[in-house]
Amino acid sequence: MEYLIKQYPLESGALEIQYIEEFFGEFPRRKTAAEVVGRLADRESLILMAESALPDDPSTRIPVAYKVVHELRAVEADPKLRDLVERLRGCIDFDGRKVLYSWIGATRRDWRGQGHFRALTEQSEAWAVALGFQEVVVKTKNKFYDMRAVLAQLGFDVVKFERHASGPGESKVYLSKQLLPDLVAGHRSRRTVVHAGG
Ligand SMILES: CC(C)(COP(=O)(O)OP(=O)(O)OC[C@H]1O[C@@H](n2cnc3c(N)ncnc32)[C@H](O)[C@@H]1OP(=O)(O)O)[C@@H](O)C(=O)NCCC(=O)NCCS
Questions:
Q1: Verdict on whether the full-model pTM lies above 0.90
Q2: Which CATH number belongs to the domain containing residue 178 in this structure?
């Protein structure tokens, strides 16, 4: 299978993210376009969407999965990112290194298990390696079993577990993956990447 991936510029990509997040009932707080722009405006970032044909109308392609990654600096002004960097201290080496944060991403339910998220992840890794990023970090909750299984399958290692007072499900799991130059040669997905207009 060849995956079709669209890479978006910031403004139109943020609107696409807001739109596709409407399909994910399991996310308690969906991202707005303004939130996406606010987070990404001043940093290296990548907005990707995988498109697939509708089963009953193969001539119509729709976005079925997405992934947003961005640079994470040792010193952050944004309170949420500053807090994240603080929590990662001692687990992730920021010193003189380019660290990427895998912020948000998902696949629509009917299209899960078809490799779209692997394709998006591999494309983001290829982009990151080309830009000199050395490590990618991601955060999830213990209760997101699908995501944890998928991250393991994609080669992420747990670097920190943060217990939550309300129970094990809400506990946070931090994972990372080294972006070594030979990583890209081992990628498995065949992808066509197109750049969406602004
Ligand atoms: C996690 C998620 C993004 C995976 O997307 P997907 O497009 O179905 O993933 P893929 O088909 O690309 O699968 C990637 C790999 O994980 C494996 N995988 C997929 N779903 C899995 C599952 N539920 N359990 C175990 N492995 C799984 C696949 O076999 C594949 O491995 P392989 O390429 O080595 O065969 C999707 O299930 C999802 O959106 N879940 C809800 C999002 C969520 O939990 N968000 C919480 C916030 S972090």
A1: yes
A2: 3.40.630.30
